[in-house]
# Entry
Amino acid sequence: MAITFQFYSDPALTTPIRASLMFSQAVASPDPVDMLIYFGSQNAACSAQASSNPGIDPIEVAISSSGAGALTADVRLATSAAGLALATGGAPLALGVTLAGGRENATPIHIRVLDSTHVAGLFDNLSLTVGSIEETS
Amino acid sequence: MPTVSGIPDSVGLRLSVVSENVFDSSVKSLRWIIGATIGGIDVSAQIEGSVNVTATEDAARIASFSLMPSDSAQFAWFDNQPVTIDVQLNSGAGWEVFRLFTGVVENKFFNPANRVCELSCRDGYQEIPASCTSPEAVETLFGGLSSPSRLVLPWDADNPDSVSYFNGLLDTMLGGCAITSNGLWRPFAWRIGTPMASFTLADVMDDSVKFVSGNRVDSPSTIKAVLTHRFYRLHNVETAIYWTAPSIIENIVNDLKLVPRSVVLSAVDAVSNWYVKGKLTITPPPIGSFDVTWGGVTVTYPIYEPDSNSGIWELNGWFYRRWYQEIEAVYTTTIDLGGSSGREEIVSASMAADFDAGAWESPAAVDTPLDIYARNVPAAPAGPTGYEALSEPWPPANGHLDYYGDVDGAALENAMRHVTAKAVRKAIAGRRSQRIEFDRPLDPRFEIGDIIAVDLFSLTGAGQAVELVHSLDCDTGDAITHFRIACPDGNSTDAALTVDITPHVAVVNHSLTGIPTSNHFGSATTTTYLAPPADANLAGWFCNVGGLSENYDIATPVYNEQFRIVLPEIPAELRDPIRVDEAVSTIISIPDAQLTISF
# Structure
């Protein structure tokens, strides 16, 4: 049985995100680009905790980099649009110690990208990841 | 409880850092390359002809393109596969990538003559509401911009229809929904704020600029929002009854018998629509011998225990009556849009209290005016108030209660807001049908709902993107984006609605009293027998003077011995259904494009 907690494109947790999210930035004077995705499970009978220390450690969304290119510090995460202004670039986002399943419990994840490198190009090195979780149903 | 461990799939973040020059109209040439994937496989090299992507407010983003399948297996594999379409642009300073579409293959057409397969693709705009299994899930899709009211727009848990519920809420949304080029659901408010870009004549294709005025059919001169709330007004009146039997001396002088208790209780039972509140207090005749002196003669009047048990000396208690009245409160607000259409449009809804008023009005199944015990009552809890056996709610004595059932003040306000929001959306949608359209070289920076300013020929103003059409022709090299922006005339930057509803408050006066009960003597001399009033105004104990009495007069009216109770009728204005009209205070804001057209 596979885990059901995933990233979704809508608050009703209908469409899992399969393709990369494309953020376009002007090279010299970029404006921040915000997107909103969701993390959760359609299964209302299940819940999730971090495998590292269930019930103690929070489940975190991390900004991972697989190499050179875009900077993780240029990405901010928050659970609300207002929280983006206060978020620290590159910092992981704690979603909670225990996440409940079900569409009504979808956790919004606001993403803001603002390039600071001012280097033109297409960079694929960044991704949002969640560590190992234990899903109980 | 089974537990499973794993790592959720990651989400890639592609960062395309592009030159500002790529959309600079002063750059005279632009090269482009389509990058399309189907099921994660790059099919860019197989694409033939044109690629079209159309994004529209409150609709699915659709894409169509043609390609030559490598073989029949690939052709069969296309079904329902995820699709992404990117475009790489080059204006001389490197290649820059933009996402145009994220969706799935909807259907395919194959021309065996040239072996070209045309694919129609669509995002998940329809599937997302359809897959919701709860009203809360549907409501989240609107990002707080809709006005739900389960009373007016109910959710049927037994036969859930999430699509109808979504469409019902969309009718109240002061904004729109779309799915972005990245495939993300995006609700947005209708507003004309700071534009993301401003285009002048140098940025657009000259012949493409069009101003389209609002449709007359979409712009009534007034829109009324009407909410009809049907509920019950529950009335309750009480009236006291007090009666005392003729005194012992009257009994002796008039040759009367003790009043039988059964006759009085039969009269109590015969009263229609009125019921005894609690228990009647029945005082039996006192047991003993009573000496009465009359005209110098002393007479002993004995009352024995059997006579006391079957007689009645005093009656004291309350009667009540309760009934319901159907009330229809009609809350109305009018949005005056002006214009010349002269047409009035009405958005209406109704809701009713979920309450069985008929059962409420009925008396308790067991309702006897007598206590079980006549004397030596065993110790018992505190006495009844009289209404315990009646179903709730209990209106105050001689008062009323407007009973909404499962509707409270907040629910009523939500319902009115729902109806008014539908009217406001219609009003703003009519204004937003005023649009500016233009084409410019491919510009995939914008999403539906983004704000774009224009200064084109004699047209200036700003609007919100309601349709974006990207057309790329691999044969000719044309790459064009068609913009359609909504430019409403309004009074604000944001679409907004404030509803202030005051629930109907009734002033009801109950002052119903019955005919006082007294004792009436028939066959009596005129000195004792008073001139009879109208029959309807007689109540109490009716008896006749005995033949041995010096007050006996054979010529005067003789009563049928009886006990009569006369209680008041309910006036029609407190009984018949009534309709009350209430105005609702609303404040409406419509985004203003600040559009000017000069000649």
User: Anything to note?
Assistant: The mean pLDDT of chain B is 88.
